[in-house]
């Protein structure tokens, strides 16, 4: 007797098994696309930043979000979600709050816990379930102690919290990385001035703070000036080349006419100016000083210009890549940005064809709010942290790209 199942029934069973397995598959968090952002609204005025948690998942899941007290925490429970192997420090903006941890809660449920810097309330929470990927967004705003109203059943919500994970080893930093910091102006050139502050002093102090933070990461740092002295623009480039710089970062806090936009701005070399700048460099500098490792002595101006343009085909994308890393980190940390945060310019300190270079306007000293930030130790510490993250992240990305190119 033949007990073989009809083909149509076998297909139906296979489809049913496949659909059940798919339904039981846990949702995974896309850490790279998720983030915790801190809006600078109210920063520096005695209030904590507005926060938004964005969770990008492989599929939509039931969830709940509550704020509890003692200490103040945001708790997000997700059904059928798996965080195995995911590190909280890989979440963009993870250090905007004192601590984050996640893990299994009970069978079929996982939990995310954010320790908040003060009393908060949830202003909105929702899940977009449509393609390309489901996204949960939870917005929180700071409130006064009197307005703080945590979940009454906080004890129940806090049961079975994920155990704090052991602190991970710091991410490995690229070996041999050298960064040259260029505090603008100095000496008889104080730069922009407003409110009793000078641009030269502000950026020099900031550069020293940034140097300390970068050196703590094992990065070699050189500065074009370490005191109130004047350094010619072309010499700043030569100092960077002599130091074997992997990145040249010029720091400024300029002036804008009243009423113009403020906020941090990043400048990279404008390719449209390449021809003119190459001609100027070929005539004003010793040939051997134009490109490290390439002796242009005895070459005519046209050949020198062509070789510099060729070098820029490698360094220009790397400079632009750094600008993207930096704007991303600033946005995630709630640093106020100019309405055009990345711009091209023909500044002298960006002319080097063989070193990835950028000029960062930390803010505009003539803008009252920017000036308050530039002189606020808390804001400066945030900006230093952002730059360290951007520089190390960019360097790891450069190393990864270089390794792949070798293969």
Detailed description of the structure:
This protein is of the alpha/beta class. The chain folds into two domains: 27-157, Immunoglobulin-like (Sandwich), CATH 2.60.40.3500; 178-406, Zn-dependent exopeptidases (Aminopeptidase). 32% of the residues lie in helices and 25% in strands. A hairpin with a 2-residue loop joins strand 7 (99-106) and strand 8. Helix 6 crosses helix 8 (377-406). The longest helix is centred in the C-terminal third of the chain and has 32 residues, at 301-332. It is globular.
Number of strands: 18
Can you tell me the residue ranges where pLDDT is under 50 for at least 5 consecutive residues?
17-23, 42-46, 153-161, 163-171, 273-299, 301-308
CATH class of the largest domain: Alpha Beta
Shape: globular
Series of H and E elements: HEEEEEEEEEEHEEEHEHEEHHEEHH
| CATH level-two architecture of the largest domain | 3-Layer(aba) Sandwich
How many domains, in number, for the residues?
Answer: 2
Cα Rg: 26 Å
CATH names the topology of the largest domain as Aminopeptidase
State the helical fraction. 25-40%
Q: At the fourth CATH level, what is the homologous superfamily of the largest domain?
A: Zn-dependent exopeptidases
- Give the amount of beta strand, in percent: 15-25%
Individual helix count: 8
Give the helix/strand class. alpha/beta
